[in-house]
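Form 7-S
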Amino acid sequence: MSMLEVKNIYKSYGTLEVLKGISFTMEKHETKVIIGTSGTGKSTLLKCINQLDPPDKGKVWLEGQEITNPKIDINKIRQKIGFVFQDFNLFNHLTALKNVSIGLEKVKKIEKEQAQDRAIKELQRVGLKKQAHQYPAQLSGGQKQRVGIARALAMDPSIILFDEPTSALDPELIGDVLDVMKSLAGEVAMLVVTHEMGFARNVADEIIFMEGGVIVENGPPKQMFQNPKIERTKQFLGKISTLYGKE
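Output:
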């Protein structure tokens, strides 16, 4: 069985049907990038996967466990699923170090000193060891997002979900975050919702193009960018590459 299996996911809000039968699989250490127009359900899909917003219909398996089963201990499962939000979601009253170590202490019940040692290691991994004792208000947006990535990594997740991790950043800060994400490719499975076409082209093992709550087309970057099978994919990639850059 695949590391992650998403099967026939549906999600509606009132009369608005957002997801209309999404299915795909991911293997260990694979990087998949989800692209598509705004409002097409990309972020909703991520929230359905980690059960922040459970699907109305369909199933999700992580490492052979059905995490959509209402009897499962979802908090235990969520330890295996990192989530990096577009608006950082850091605790403003805690230092960068504490933002990273708190999950280890509270959720994994690791001793404070050991948790902080691990947090320092992950902050160093994302280039922020010197900022360990600074508070979010003292950090740039790019630094906050890298703290968010360090926090996810510290929990030893099987997969990290990235919900438009660079969309709230000034252009000059985006590169540092993308460089960290590139460095993780092949080390941990990543499912990334983004408009960053250079990242999608150079790092993704597969690109998933969503529109109108369905997967229009998916495939390796070379195929998707150079020879998409569907005209709508060609139109979208042409327009998005003009807006956000090809590299």
